[in-house]
Amino acid sequence: AVPLSVCAVTMSLLSMVDVATVRNSLLRVNFTKESAEYFLLQYSSYTDLFDGLLDELKFSEQGARWLWGAYSGYALTVFHLPIGMIATLCVSILPVIAGNLAKKNMAAVRKCSLYAADATLFAAVPAAVLFFVSSGDILKLLFNNSASEKMLALVSPCLIFICMSQLFSAIFNAAGKVYEPFFIQLIGMAIKLLGNIVLVKNPYLNISGAIISSCLAYGFICFAQGVFLRKTFDIRFTKKRILTPFVSAVPMYFVLELTYQPMCCIFSNDIVSFGASAFAAGVAYLLTYSLFSESGFLTFLKKAGHSFKVEEDVAVLGKYRRVSICTC
Least C-beta-crowded within 10 Å: which of 31, 53, 84, 287? Predict the structure, then answer.
């Protein structure tokens, strides 16, 4: 319990430092006329706090606070909804993995971990695609404000990295390995803080620099924990197992892009239109996933074809043996 508490406190302190770093970096952004005009094209319609930006070429304290609030108060609030739901899966597998580790049943540990990874990717990838394509619609429905539309779309890939890193951390915790993922997360937070300092000061990036640094940091954490998981438990993720959710998300992306406007013409209610479009995209994702997954229809046909060929070879071999016996 003590190592876990120390890790939690340390990560909380680093999160506070992260917030302070972003806000201070926003106040140090030096704009040019061109970069200021580019920024105003994106946000001037949502607030009048940036009316003096072309004259001062710097954020006011109120403007920096508004920009951070738009990101943390709106985009991140929506962003963390699926993360909280998927986190329950990570908690639920802890007793199963711990029990199998106590029995030294490594085959069951690997099988359970792979199934949990499949379920995590299965849920996280379509959520990320939904945020990327329909960020403005989601924010309008929930808050009647789409100022954070580009922020939510830009941070959407990070959803996959965070969900997978949560799963990997849960597996390590079940095995009693607390310090290894902690040090990996510590390096990831260092990457994030360094990215904030360097990228947020870019006038063309500003708050987007904090989002990019988050994606880089959690991408590193996810990759490093996956490598360590493979070395520790010999858990190997096949290319098909990883790519299937992403391949299945391609038709989902096009369905979302192509069906929302027609749904708005059919239904007068925005919530119903968005729900119908999201439902159609979800059906497209499920159908494609069922075709290409390792337990899907195409894999079944491939195995069935292989079995049929084996039976045919056996039948031919038996016929050859009977002919040979008769000849003798």
Answer: 84
